[in-house]
Design brief:
alpha+beta; 5-stranded antiparallel sheet; 2 domains; Alpha-Beta Plaits; elongated; 5-stranded mixed sheet; about 450 residues
């Protein structure tokens, strides 16, 4: 058992001339009949195929667009919550500065009630000292932070500062949150809008959507953890759908031009049906053997995801996978067994990856996995899961022997690798390092973290 680390022409001489002409016209008509029928059949076939392709690609584009929007909104909501945390930390520092100010401490020691009240008003603070409360905070909902003034183990006073959770604060947070152009942030408390939308309107998320008035929004949420407040990252559904319009317009124009061209070809019978199917097949996005994405689709998706990661400041990881000792399988059991191994490993990717990830055949026995929003550590974990799943595969050879599969993995991350070329080169280098280290393992290219890059969690 090999382990793979794995017409008859009729002469009418005696007929009158008219009869001869009639027969000639009849023969021409009979010859034209099948041509017309075949041309019409080809045209209708192309029309049906184009319709199916346009509908399928349009649906796929909408699905991909929806997934992309959901990812961007979810990331935006999380970043917004982090920004609120930074604001709260700044508020905590301000409260500490006020509590340690000599002016306030002297007033408290001297029990100067008028001075304490003046300081509370000047800083919009609430100061509780010697059983009395001076000043008032902004109405709820709000961010608050309290600092104490103590003498030994005795608390002399408590100083509380607050910021209202209002439109002004939300506008500040939105400015530092990476969201699509048409997206916005909304704050809701107990499912009622308090900022960023129609005040008091119900903000209930259903099937990834929320409606304010007559406008529906795609939405993702993140809990603020303060006063039952939820942060909504929203984008109008009309704007989301508009993202796919350029692609759908190009798709429709391409389909119309293709149909016009096919009509001309079918009318002249210039190309056989088989060649037409060949052209359609050339446009397919999947690898015929494994059913995974082909190299062209991988290259396009990798280019799109790197561009998206550059625009939004997120991570992107690439995993290269090479079946160990694959040549030995072909040499000993034949290329059919090698193909069986490739077909057997393909379903592992679908069972391991998220919907927004993409796995494809990179070439020969090598595969690639594109992981948007994933750090090198997360990608290493994904690769390890795939490696373990590969090790459970056993392919039966024609001789009856079981061919077991192992693979080596190379992992690299953008923006640590600043370009597509560097990303592929570093992943490839890590893959060869895994081969040199004994195969059946995962090696990741490690680099210094890039400042200002938002880390997204992998599912």
């Amino acid at each position: 058992m090999l382990t793979v680390r794995l017409t008859a022409m009729t002469t009418l001489d005696f007929l009158p001339l008219r009869r001869g002409r009639d027969d000639a016209r009849f023969r021409r008509a009979r010859r034209r009949g099948p041509v017309v029928r075949v041309a019409l059949f080809l045209f209708l076939l192309v029309l049906a195929l184009l319709t199916a392709i346009v509908v399928t690609l349009s649906r796929n584009a909408n699905r991909t667009n929806t997934q992309q929007v959901a990812t961007e909104l979810a990331s935006g909501a999380r970043v917004a919550v982090s920004s609120f945390g930074a604001v709260r930390a700044d508020l905590r520092a301000q409260a500490g500065q006020l509590a340690t100010s000599l002016d306030l401490q002297r007033a408290i020691v001297a029990n100067d009630r008028s001075r304490i009240a003046a300081i509370a008003r000047a800083h919009h603070a609430r100061i509780h000292a010697r059983g009395e409360t001076f000043g008032a905070l902004v109405p709820e909902p709000r961010l608050t932070s309290t600092s104490t003034i103590a003498q030994g183990s005795a608390v002399l006073a408590r100083v509380t500062l607050a910021l209202p959770l209002d439109q002004q604060l939300l506008k500040l947070i939105r400015a530092s949150t990476p969201l699509p152009k048409n997206a916005a942030l909304v704050l809701a408390r107990n499912d009622r809008v308090i900022a960023g939308g129609p005040i008091g309107a119900r903000a209930s998320l259903r099937n990834g959507r929320v409606t304010f008035g007559s406008t529906a929004f795609a939405a993702k949420t993140s809990e603020l953890g303060i006063a039952n407040v939820t942060v909504f990252a929203v984008e109008p559904v009309a704007a989301v759908d508009a993202r796919a319009l350029p692609y759908q317009k190009k798709l429709l124009i391409t389909a119309v031009l293709t149909l016009a061209l096919a009509a001309g070809i079918a009318a002249r019978l210039g190309r056989p049906l088989a060649r037409m199917f060949g052209e359609l097949s050339d446009q397919a996005e999947t690898d015929a053997l494994t059913g995974l994405a082909n190299r062209r689709t991988l290259d396009e998706r990798l280019d799109e995801e790197v561009d998206r990661a550059q625009r939004h400041g997120t991570h992107l990881s690439l995993v290269l996978v090479d079946i160990d000792d694959f040549k030995q399988v072909n040499d000993r059991f034949g290329h059919q067994s090698g193909d069986d191994v490739l077909r057997a490993v393909a379903p592992v990717f679908a069972g391991t990856l998220r919907e927004l990830d993409l796995a494809g055949r990179f070439g020969g026995e090598e595969f690639a996995v594109v992981l948007p929003g994933t750090t090198v550590a997360g990608a290493r974990g994904v690769a390890e899961e795939i490696r373990k799943a590969f090790a459970r595969i056993a392919v039966k050879a024609p001789s009856g022997e079981l061919v077991r599969v192992t693979a080596s993995f190379g992992v690299a991350e953008f923006p640590s690798c600043p370009s597509i070329k560097a990303l592929i080169e570093q992943a490839d280098a890590a893959l060869y390092e895994a081969k040199r280290a004994g195969k059946n393992r995962v090696v990741a290219h490690e680099a210094e973290p890039v400042p200002g890059v938002v880390t997204s969690a992998t599912a």
